[in-house]
Design a protein that fits this description.
globular, 9 helices, single chain, alpha/beta, Rossmann fold, six-stranded parallel β-sheet, two-stranded parallel sheet
């Protein structure tokens, strides 16, 4: 049976997919059979046959060089670059929580570690209408703990503190923080790291610079984070 972790972020375009790809790649380099899963994915393009390709999944697959099929990585794929709840209103095929969970569980016996990623920030709705499904519902249904990805720059203290507070209030287990777009030696960013650790009580386990192709997380730390 595999171990898993959920990658959430302080918002859209924070770099969750990039960080997830580095994590999946690193786990593979450590000798584990590593996989990726995202319940719903928006803003995708069609291939030459007119089929929507889950772009984030393809990015992870290519960067990590894993054999996992794209079809296995994401059950709900939308073309419009909007929240999945709105994309499905426009395109049809709304997220069914049972299906999203079952697809995730169907791959658990195949891999050592599964890195799951959310759509947008933690409050992103997956479905809103006749049924209301939010990311937190998926996380709870799958009994997942999370890692928070955030930009290291200006405004991140507020973004991280509010996200961590919300997740705590909702009973979601947040284990650590990873910073993206890190600039070594930048006095503001170094202070942001210290302030975010103080305000949340969480450890910053990695700081990733633009263009990095590796993430500095030990095998032992991965083993302690994934459940």
């Amino acid at each position: 049976m595999s171990k898993s972790i959920f990658i959430t972020g302080t918002g859209t375009d924070i770099g969750k997919t990039y960080i997830a790809a580095l994590i999946v790649k690193k786990l593979k380099e450590y000798g584990f059979k590593s996989a990726y899963y995202k319940a719903a994915m928006s803003g995708n393009i069609k291939n030459e046959n007119g089929k929507l390709i889950p772009g984030d999944a393809k990015f992870v697959k290519d960067m990590a060089e894993i054999e996992q099929s794209l079809d296995e990585m994401c059950p709900y794929v939308y073309e419009r670059a909007v929240s999945p709840h709105l994309a499905s209103k426009i395109e049809g095929n709304p997220v069914d929580l049972k299906v999203a969970k079952e697809n995730y569980e169907s791959i658990k016996d195949k891999y050592d570690y599964i890195t799951l990623e959310g759509s947008g920030g933690i409050l992103c709705p997956l479905r809103f209408g006749d049924k209301k499904i939010f990311l937190e519902d998926f996380i709870k249904a799958c009994k997942l703990s999370s890692i928070l990805v955030a930009d290291t720059g200006l405004g991140t203290i507020n973004d991280i503190a509010l996200t961590a507070f919300y997740m705590k209030e909702k009973g979601l287990n947040l284990k650590a923080i990873i910073f993206n777009n890190y600039i070594e030696g930048d006095i503001m960013q170094e202070d942001n790291i210290k302030m975010c650790e103080y305000l949340t009580g969480l450890k910053v386990i990695a700081c990733v610079k633009k263009g990095d192709t590796d993430i500095d997380i030990s095998k032992e730390l991965f083993e302690s984070l994934y459940e």
